[in-house]
User: Fold these one by one.
Assistant:
Number 1:
Amino acid sequence: MIGLPALYGLTGAMFAAFAVLELADRSNPKRVGTAMFWALVAVEFFAGDALPNLASGAIVVALALLAGGGALGRGHVVVDAAWRAAAAARHGNRLFAAALIVPAVAVGGTLLLPGSGLVDPKQATLVAVGLGVIVALGVCAAWLRPRLVEPLDAGRQLIDAVGWAVVLPQVLAALGAIFALAGVGDIVGGAVGHVLPAGNRLAAVAAYTGGMAGLTMLLGNAYAAFPVMTAGVGLPLLVRGFGGDPAPIAAIGMLSGFCGTLCTPLAANYNLVPVALLDLGDRWAVIRAQVATAIPLLVFNTLLMNAVAFR
Amino acid sequence: MLVLAGLAVIVVGFALRLNPFAVVVAAALVTGVAAGLAPLAVVAALGKAFAANRFVSVIWLLVPVIGLLERHGLQERARSVVAGIGAATPGRLLGTYFVLRQATAALGLIALAGQVQTVRPLVAPMAEAAAERRRPLDDAARRRLRALAAATDNIAVFFAEDIFIAIASILLIKGFLAANGIVVSPFGLSVWAIPTAVAALVVHGVRLWRLDRSFVW
């Protein structure tokens, strides 16, 4: 069965190739540090299951030292705008069709692969994404006739533009695990439960929705905040105290957490990765563009829950 | 209370504009030690969770495809298509993307689009081209528009994915409630995602409409 191990091998091979190409890029003054960073990521992908936990942890610390010590850089990227414009005119909308191969295979694979017996059904989407990448590269190689290393080199330039933020979502997931181990959420959730004025239903609803948003901002993840806030405030106060309907309370509570996700740099894959991908320069740029939607929606969620959950 | 020291590390680290990667790892180490674990045990726990969450980073397999297509003119093609549409404005373009993204996410098709898949190669260049039909963009305006393109993708998917009954968060809610002796059906939960999805469309739609008004026709 094809599952995560095959996918991790493929990803590791890609990062290993990036490390090698990085070393050869003389235009990058920090090529050694950058190559070490991608090489360590590759090692973790190849050997993450076999390595002792302490060794994986040492890799995380080494990555943090490289990133924090400013060891990563990027080479000089030459963009031939005229050539690209000519290529765009020549290829036309077939470029969009090629860009749609991965999503199309991902969706088709998610629907079809679980029943095939060839693929770990729990990982069907990820396996399908990997399969889509291979199909797309095959089609593009036959159609565009790139040099052999061109896709890898183009990918490396893109990954260099993103830099350490590439693995930040993964390390934030690990931070969430440490927070859970240390009981951080329970302490914060307990504190919210204590400061509530008794008897005011709208205040209790607002404490739950606001608490979901706030704890999500601190933990970077609504899924981590949900059990804490719902066990600490949602169930005891809103469901048992005020006799609320648990289904809308929990569902709208989760959506209130998503309002917090829009406002925290700890939600790296949504709020920090695009800063690098789009060359925005300011770490808060995406969050600033989201706050004006997130706050009205949090207010809406609070009023909605108060209106529909207590009938 | 000592375990909250990790949160303080994050707040202070971000306020001082230190490297987020280093700040997050420092926060994890401080939290673990404050919780009474041996330093090496914290490093091991961090490594274990890092290895277990590798699937989060698998999406980067896409970059060779996107990078190759960008070298062969994908962004330029996206721009020129929009530049040829008379009715294209940045607000209308992002609004259309918002609706498409919400509709597909509500059907569970989350992997169809995203920051790497669509926003960088397609949506952001298209929004820029639509804006440039009206007036030239300075650097700050260009970046604000790109940030809004990224925000539009995030908001659309967050407030539509829970309409799909088999999405991770709906299953998490169902499982949590079941563990607390409350039985709900996934449909009974996902139906409550619809009002907020509509509200997100209205709020963000109004913002996009105002964005268009900020351009002098």
Note: Residues 285-308 of chain A form the longest helix (24 residues).
Number 2:
Amino acid sequence: MREETMTTPELSFGTSAGTSTTKLRTSSLKKVWKRIGPPSIAFILFIGAWELFCRLSGLKPYLLPKPSDIVLAASENASNLWVSVYTTITEAVLGFLLSIVLGVGFAILLASSKLIERSIYPYAIIMQTIPIVAIAPIIVIWFGAGMNAIIIIAFLIGFFPMLSNTLIGLNSTDHNMKNLFYLYNASPLQTMIRLRIPAALPYIVAGLKISCTLAVIGAIVGEYIAGIGGGNGGLGYAITVASSRLQTAYLFACGLSASLLGIAFFLLVNAFSKWMLSSWHESEMKSSEG
Amino acid sequence: MTTMTGAKEWVRMERLSKVYPNGTVAVKEVDLTIHEGEFLCFVGPSGCGKSTIFKMITGLSNPSSGTLQVMGASASVARKRSDTAFVFQDHTLLPWNSVIDNVTLPLALRGVPRKERQREAERVLEMVGLKDHMRSMPRELSGGMKMRASIARALVARPKLLLMDEPFGALDEITRQTLQIELLELWRQDPEMTVLFVTHNVFEAVFLSTRIAVMTPRPGKVSDLIDVPVPFPRDESFRTTPEFGQIVRSVSQALKH
């Protein structure tokens, strides 16, 4: 039965008492090593091979910089790089937050009336298929080059996954539960707040995971198109500058920073969603037999 | 308890029929009057229209013809008065709410103040034996406990009419028998409360009811009304009496029509 396996696994370990604790600790260390050991070794081997290859082949550094060159470029330009990363984070986070608020908000609006949904949703889908790069120049014309336009591009790219995921979630409430609320004379607002929104949370979380990485992409693309120079350009801007100057090592450093930023952002959202759903939803429970 | 003459009419059906748009006759001309304090089981095979009758009593579905009165009004008006409560085969507990928040849901939806909700919830959780689990989440409960929580939620608003649609259908036989006895105790504690119980299990129907409406399919109709004139309290020993066997036989006979 599921109920029995749900009780935390630590508990059953705990009963085997003091003597086996040290054994347990070493075995859990072993487990951690088994998990992170092979990929770290592979990483070190890969970097080593790369470094060796560049040194031996004498390849021009503007074609393929050595890993050590990249680290050097990053540390020499640390303050510039940090400003770029910081700018991009700000834009991505603001765009992401906007896409959450407006995406979920619009989804609730659409879900509360079949008429509104039927009349607006098709256009939402059509708008989703418009490549963001194609309309970015229009956004720049409307909002001016710089932060505002970039935030709006980051927002637009994350908005539709949020909207459609939330809408699907709001519309897939269990039939019996809906009957229950109906029979107990719940108002549409009560049903929305107490039933449909909580039931949609797993879908909303799936939307968050998609949108957060898209927001970083959106911010960088936005900076390509609408980035302003000076001391406050984001990563996208730094990348265009570095590539035009053939500073390939710094280009690599910027690209790596952008990837790390995306990964960090995703992990953060992932941790948040785990925390939010852990108490009840099967997708995020500790024992994952769901 | 079993003689209902003079008691108030809780549900009255006269030539009640339901025909679906595709022409299927789900329920045909059912005449049945249910009185205050009864425990009436609808028993029959699947497709005999017992769930359809239920849907009409709850107001989830409208009759095609005939009259249906629930506590002197139409089904939907009766539902608005909140004297009716429901238990389904599925426990339908909200997985994101604790047991106590699930149980207080009908009161919360009506805007009953928090303190009173809390008090009523503790009362019914005590009755179903879940008071120690009121802070638990539904997934931490066994199947039987989930059903108890679901019953507690139905009882929290002190309903006059309790509608149960195969509530123990998904439980194992042992849990099912325990819950049957508990349910009878809950029903006996409130002499006003009327229980309508849908099941396809003849033994369950005989054990629980004061009266059994035997339903036969195609078209769904009440073919027999069988009294179960056995006094309460009933316990496990009732299941092995000759009287029990005899009523089971006559219900089974009626089902074969």
Note: Chain A has two domains: 17-57, 67-284.
